[in-house]
Amino acid sequence: MKKSIYALILSVFLLNSCETAHQILKDYGQTSGGLTNADIVSGLKEALSVGAQQSSNQLSALDGFFKNAAIKILLPEEAQKVEKTLRDVGLGSLVDKAILSVNRAAEDAAKSAAPIFINAVKSMSIQDALGILKGGDFAATSYLKQKTTAQLTEAFRPVIEQSLSKVGATKYWSDVFTNYNRFATNKINPDLASFVTGKAMDGIFYQVGLEEQKIRKDPVARTTEILKKVFGSKQAQGS
Q1: Rounded to 5 degrees, what are φ and ψ at 158?
Q2: How far apart are the C-alpha atoms of 194 and 198, rounded to whole Å?
Q3: Residues 52-97: pLDDT tens digits?
């Protein structure tokens, strides 16, 4: 094998093409540190798939959003005065129902995220994988966010709208602002579906980031041989 590689490289140098030499080495799948390109791509795809699936499972469970202080969806900033006004006039329970319902909608929609993520992972290139492996602590999450945000938004919006309707969020939200507008001079009518979609996506990417950290930093989280091989490598450890 070594002789054949040396022969190919020598031929390339005779042709005076460094770019071709690089491509030939890439085609042979050789990387430093004992990992092949195929190992790296396979390991990163597995890590992203595992992280996406676990994140989706956790957030789509009952109280996945509602009882997670880091990602719980509250009223939007421009509606904070709505909450205060309604609570001041004894309608706090209405606000509580509205907040609970939008979190239930996010939980219901979260289950649709994993297939979108996993589909995006299939297109990962060698260059993508090398960049993620040697990148920062959230390189895989950033890659996933870059590749899926537009598609996730497009796919998530109707799911969120359906979920909001199913759990009664639209009704509660309408009740909140109908009651608030009775006391307010400046009427407020924010786009509930858009707001919840954005917050739900923020929560999912936050959770994916946590899963990435587990795999990068905790050997116990590397549950398959390919994860152990790739994330236990010198490249992944930055050495």
Answers
A1: -65, -30
A2: 6
A3: 889 999 999 999 999 999 999 988 776 777 778 778 888 888 888 8
